[in-house]
Amino acid sequence: xxxxxxxxxxxxxxYRNPHRQGxxxxxxxxxxxxxxxxGDEVTLRVALDGDTVTDVSYDAMGCSISQAATSVLxxxxxxxxxxxxxxxxDSFVEMIQGRxxxxxxxxxxxxxxxxxxVAKYPARVKCALLGWMAFKDAVGRVGENGSDAEQPPVEAR
Amino acid sequence: MTVAPEAGRMLAxxxxxxxxxxxxxxxxxxxxxxxxxxxxxxLVYLDSGATSQRPRQVxxxxxxxxxxxxxxxxxxxxxxxxxxxDAYEAARSRIAELVGATSDDLVFTKNxxxxxxxxxxxxxxxxxxxxxxxxxxxxxxxxVVVTEMEHHANLVPWQELCxxxxxxxxxYGVTDQGRLxxxxxxxxxxxKLVAFTHQSNVMGTVPPVDxxxxxxxxxxxxxxxxxxxxxxxxxxxLPDLGVDFAVFSGHKMLGPSGIGVLYGRRELLEAMxxxxxxxxxxxxxxxEGSSYAPPPQRFEAGVPMxxxxxxxxxxxxxxxxxxxxxIAAHERSLTERALAGLAEVGGVHIIGPTxxxxxxxxxxxxxxxxxxxxxxxxxxxxxxxxxVGHHCAWPLHRRFGIAAxxxxxxALYNTExxxxxxxxxxxxxxxxxxxx
Lengths: 157, 436
Fold this sequence. Notes:
A: 3-stranded antiparallel β-sheet, 41% helix, 16% strand, B: 8-stranded mixed β-sheet, 13 helices
């Protein structure tokens, strides 16, 4: 059944037990994103140490796809550099916007490969991207709206 | 000239539905309803509140018009121009009749949204159009009143009008039961216009139009009724309701998209400045300035949509042939069944009235533990087309502290077994997400 292809067990696991949920301090950049078609929202914070992502915390209201995608995102970026995180995001965006025609980069995406099925449902693509858009925006705002002014802005390409 | 093929021929009822509507025969006119979706699931279309499907008669009429009579209307004196203009105006008069109005009261617009914008921009324009238009002019200290249950189309244009003019926007609240809270606001002499829906596109709530009109009149305010969700689903007589303006949309009433209707009391349309200007809407044009045609032409600048108007006229014929009373009774029965069925599913909460008193056939709900998007996805996998999200009524959802609901909305072609499929689908969505 197609439904199982979309709602992979990994997605449902992250939905039921989201990683790194909640808003924490210190953080260096924060973003609020909303999906205007459905009203789903996420507030997401990033904390950095130099160029390394040390924490991603978030408060989200949304469907299983958006919640799980944000949870997986934190697994993929925490402990990595901003540059690496952004290239992972690029791989994710490419897969999710590929209408199911794009072979996902399993090395880069790890658990996020589970979202490949979502790519076949154009109406759900924005759900999967909500957290990532917030992450990108929060990184862009580092040094601008964080709790800790020490961290200088990073080169987010 | 006939461009409307045999819309009235159908429906010698064989009583396929307990409600008395021969839905089997009706459905045979809607080819799309017999297709399958996803994995060969028969389509169960429960999204008519967003857009209705169109019967063969409407499609045939558009094609027949274009193949035999097409020309730019209200200009030219050749035979085609005559025929096209006749077809366009005949459609206007049949549509007007459906809502108890006459042709002169009815302006064709692109959609209902444009109809509301037309009024708001005409009111803006009145500030500079000349002293004779002063009655439509708003400014600081004036108020426009809407309700918290409006579709964005009947909210954002008024926000913008207030922003442009310095007037203040106020609104009636909504009760926990999804009814309009008439005690939440008092109109005053400052109130210049009250805009409200005839039926909430989310909750199905039908507000007390008579009382709202009475209150508006008491303070000398104009009224505008968003009738998008009422006109397709039951008898509506706009002059009897006493509203000054009303809008409705072709594509929600079995007609084409790209056409909507603005109704206005003639005396008001005659006194109101235009919104869009250009060809067709003029009386006299000189290089120094122009005067305007009487309504409705004053508000129909440019070559209008024509096959769409003809198609909408035939959609009206179709609705009339079935009977608006019978359609209303049928949809009420479907709504009752849906409300009762969903009430039996644990953890389902209806947003809005849970009985069919002063209520139409839009049923929105949330399921504990299953986000609306996810419930909608399960329903989609079973062939059910429902709407998920805020349905262009974000403030209303916020009022109930939720981001999104699932909405099923009914039309004349829906059946009891489709309602049962909805209820079964909601059960399945709970099972799939492991919610007991």
